[in-house]
Amino acid sequence: MAVVLLPTLLPLLAGLWFWSRPLFSGTWRHSPAWFTWSAVLLLLGTGVTYLVGSLAGASLDPEEACHGAGQTYDRAYRRANFDEYTRWFPLHDRCHAGYDLVPAWVNPALVALPVLALLCLAHAVRLAVGRRRTEESRTEEKDTS
């Protein structure tokens, strides 16, 4: 088990360390790279969230998954709403009309995380363009002096 977890956790912890260092030093506000890496982490979080939602109640037998969750299985409801649990988004895997095996937080997170990633990327571009304009104006001032 440690042989599998170690190669996975070490890069993750190293990445988290390098991502969090600007938070402690206070330089994250002016760093386009920090916002870009934040967007990458948010997109990775979106992928993990989708995986969690799509594998919720993962079983070859949905009736078994529903009974494992302590719910009754309504075969007629599943047949009538076949397209509901085979869609890509929003994720649902209902046992009956009142119970979904997919956690309630999954679908809102699948909307919020990519939106936050897009906002981080937009802010990173804004910071990079602002920094470039500042550098260009400084070089122009040096040339005219």
Structure at a glance:
By secondary structure, the protein is mainly α.
Structure description:
The model has no long low-confidence stretch (mean pLDDT 88). 68% of the residues lie in helices and 3% in strands. It has helices at residues 2-25, 32-54, 62-68, 75-80, 106-144; strands at 94-96, 99-100. It has a two-stranded antiparallel ribbon with strand order 1-2.
Write the SSE topology.
Blueprint: H1 2-25, H2 32-54, H3 62-68, H4 75-80, E1 94-96, E2 99-100, H5 106-144
Antiparallel strand pairs: 1-2
Using brief descriptors, characterize the structure shown.
single chain; 145 residues; mainly alpha
- Treating each run of at least 4 consecutive H or I residues as one helix, how many helices? 5
Helix content: 55-70%
Q: How would the global form be characterised? A: elongated
- The count of strands amounts to 2
| Secondary structure category | mainly alpha
Average pLDDT:
88
The radius of gyration is 23 Å
Summarize the biggest pleated sheet.
2 strands, antiparallel
Instruction: Write down the secondary-structure element order.
Output: HHHHEEH
Low-confidence stretches: none
Strand percentage lies at under 5%
Major sheet: arrangement of strands: 1-2
Whole-Å distance between the termini?
65 Å
